[in-house]
Amino acid sequence: MYLIDPAGHSRRAFLRRTGQLAMAGTALPFAINLAAMGEAAAQAAPSDDYKALVCVFLFGGNDYANTVVNYDTASYAKYSTIRGSIALAQDKLTELRPTLPLAGGRQYALDSKMAKLATLFDEGKMAVQLNVGPLIKPLTRAQFNGPNRKDFPIPPKLFSHNDQQSIWQSSSPEGSVIGWGGNIGDIALEQNPTASSLFTCISVSGNTVFLSGDEALQYQVGTGGAVRIKGVSGATGNIYNSATVKAALQQLAQQPRSHTLENEYNKVTKRAVDAEGKITDAIQSDDLAANFPTGNYLASQLKMVARLIRGRTALGLKRQVFFVSMGGFDLHDDIDTRQPVLMAALSEAMAAFQRQMEAFQIADKVTAFTASDFGRTLSSNGNGADHGWGSHHFVVGGAVKGKAFYGTPPPVSVTNTSADDDQWHVGQGRLLPTTSVDQYAATLARWFGVSDERLNGILPNLKNFGMTAPSGIVYPRDIGFMK
Q1: What are the strands, taking DSSP E only, across 76-226?
Q2: Sign for the pseudo-dihedral over CA of 137, 140, 143, 144
Q3: How many CB atoms are located within 10 Å of the residue 442 CB?
Q4: Which of helix, strand or coil describes residue 26?
Q5: Tally of domains within the chain
């Protein structure tokens, strides 16, 4: 099998987690996320040495063609003809003007509703990664269509939501237990103090394989803060209107027990209660300098990430990985009306987060990036688009080499023919990626502080890149969008 084997990370880690889940039972369903944290040895780091990665996952498969829109005259004409009624009007687009113009006169634009992200691009604080997606090794359309899958393997279960979400986050299809964000967290544990290592990987969007490592497991919070165990944590609220009953339950849930399983269960409960207290103290109030829009769930998540980052000093943290998300991108219908609303929300949320990092004066230490199941077809199915493969994504932060496009601009086409200028489509305008997720992730990980020697262990397909393929496309291990 050419995909990552979970055993390659640590079968012992998997067994340890499942054993803890059995002990935790169902009363504290999130307790397992705490059980295997906090055992790594901390190493000293400079007091100002902090970095954070923030994954913004767009669930449903974001439509690449109406996100980063072909804008030069020739490309826009093809785009408009192919997309028909779902094409965005050219006079409603904001052109992105990179410092170095693209070859062949290619130009791209954003929907005018994404004005705040366009401003970040102009300020050099955002880069656009073109045509990125899961790849095992460099691949052309002829190889994709050919019979020799042993020499030219493709990611399994293409165009499947659950599987492609998992492959983006972990290099393996649905059922994977290890994500590359969590493996970056494993390395980050070496720099975070043992007492706070629990907060190395934090999700504000529920359970995600992205943040699950061999040692580092996700700590989940909500947009309002840490999750409390009802009746056990928190200073307010009695049980059955009785403070005595609450105190008794707290004692039963946390005191040492003679039975091994009971004792381990209570240790996990106590750890959860202690963690809730630490997080609550660290995040303080929700008064922030940036204007996070209300009624925008992604903005609420990123606001909580900002509050957690503000509390990094109180927790003594040097490295953190965060996960937030928004849904609604599976637009088989009404893409022309619903996609702009989603893009506006994304733009406003990510821009507000960047402005808050600037207000904290740590914009160069925090990098946010988008990811999604897959792109969508360039051709319309009527008033929507179907599942695709490659897509365009954004990287935002003060350490980003912004006002630039990275990767290979794909031709505007929907064919699957032998035409030389159409080797990067596999039908209906589905992009065959010219940049792999492993390259994208490796570039972020290197900036975060992961050494070249450790990258292959985090990103199992990275070893297949770092060269110029026979097609002429360069597949560097580091794409170069980070300073």
Answers
A1: 93-96, 108-111, 126-133, 201-203, 219-222, 225-226
A2: positive
A3: 25
A4: coil
A5: 1
Q: What tokens does 403 get?
A: 């006002």
64 within domain boundaries: yes
Q: Which one-letter DSSP state was computed for residue 191?
A: T
Per the structure, the complete domain to which residue 373 belongs is given by 30-224+286-475
229: tokens are 């165990």
Angle at alpha carbon of residue 176, lines to 173 and 180, rounded to 5°: 95
Tell whether 105 is covered by a domain.
yes
Is the per-residue pLDDT at 26 higher than 60? no
Amino acid at 259: H
Q: Which residues 6+ apart lie within 8 Å of 97 measured at CB?
A: 122, 403
For residues 392 and 408, the answer to whether their CB atoms sit within 8 Å is no
Helix (H) or strand (E) holding 382: none
Task: Tell me if 126 is assigned to some domain.
Answer: yes
Rounded CA-CA distance 188/216 in Å is: 9
Alpha helices in 203-259 (DSSP H): 243-254
Phi, psi of 441 (to 5 degrees): -65, -40
Average pLDDT of the chain is: 86
In a domain, 141, yes or no: yes
Q: So what's the pLDDT on residue 230?
A: 57
- The torsion angle over the Cα atoms of residues 111, 112, 117 and 121, rounded to 10 degrees, is 90
Residue 178 contacts by C-beta under 8 Å, 6 or more apart in sequence? 4, 6, 9, 13, 14, 170, 172, 209, 212, 213, 214
388 Rama class: left (phi>0) / alpha (psi -120 to 50) / beta: beta
Give the DSSP letter string of 27-66.
TSTTTHHHHT-S-SPP----TT--EEEEEEEETT---STT
Instruction: Please classify residue 417 by burial: count the beta carbons closer than 10 Å to its beta carbon, then call 0-12 exposed, 13-18 middle and 19+ buried.
Output: exposed
- CATH number of the CATH domain containing 150: 3.40.720
Residue 413 in 3-state DSSP?
coil
Range in 243-252, 314-323, 370-379, 418-427 with the lowest mean pLDDT:
243-252
